[in-house]
Amino acid sequence: LQLSRADLAPKASTKATVLLNLDSGSATTSSAAFSMTNSATFNSTTSLDYYDGLGNRHTLSTYYVKTAANTWDVFAANDGTQIGAGAIGTLNFNSDGSLNTTSTTLPFNISIPLTGGAPTPQALAIDLAGTTQYGSPFGVNTLSNDGYASGKLTGYYVGADGMVVGRYS
Questions:
Q1: Which residues contact 64 (CB under 8 A, 6 or more apart)?
Q2: Which of 73, 97, 71 is nearest to 87 (CA)?
Q3: Does 3 have pLDDT greater than 80?
């Protein structure tokens, strides 16, 4: 049995899962155009890390703007630079606080321009299925992505059943 000590290749993120609650009691934002540097133009924000094709970590920030009762626009930024000129999508909710899957098309598919040698643009699907709008504070329940950086074998063990399990950085 031979175990390779070569680097494990990175995997570019293709899907991000964002599950949260948007506060139904939030006021609609001012009439000012969205600006990620002006917190008066959005109600809530959160960020998650994702990986490009070379295994470099990037930060995707999402911003939530209440535009009307049961309606929120979603904006995004990559490493501090807004993606696109407008919202990447709109979330519509039913009167019970659940996501209206008839009028909300998910996932939001975005194209992210990258620098530094990674394949560009990078396509990323942002899945907000299961997001709610209840009368409780903004809360993040899940932030995940399907990519990872490269890694090295840091150790291994042989289980009682004979299975060899490797640990990677």
A1: 22, 42, 43, 44, 45, 72, 73, 74, 91, 138
A2: 73
A3: no
Measured CA to CA, the distance from residue 63 to residue 86 in angstroms comes to: 11
**pLDDT at residue 137, as a whole number:** 97
CA distances to 107, 112, 145 from 43, in Å:
21, 24, 24
Quote the tokens at residue 65.
């703007």
Residues sharing a CB contact under 8 Å with residue 69, sequence separation 6 or more, in sequence order: none
- Residue 105, judged by CB atoms within 10 A of its CB (0-12, 13-18, 19+), counts as exposed
Q: Provide the whole-model pTM.
A: 0.90
Contacts for 68 with CB less than 8 Å, ≥ 6 apart = 28
Instruction: Tell me the C-alpha distance between 78 and 113, whole Å.
Output: 9
Taking the CB of residue 1, how many other CB atoms lie within 10 A of it?
4
